[in-house]
Amino acid sequence: MRNLLRSRRGSVAFVTVIALVPLIGVVALGAEAGSWYVTKQHTQNAADAAAYSGALRLSCNIANAACDAQSVDYRGKQFAAQNAFCNAGDTAYPGTNCATSLPSRISRAVQIDIGDYNAGTFTTPAAGVGNAVRARVSQQQPAYLAAVLV
Question: What is the total count of domains within the chain?
Answer without folding.
Answer: 1
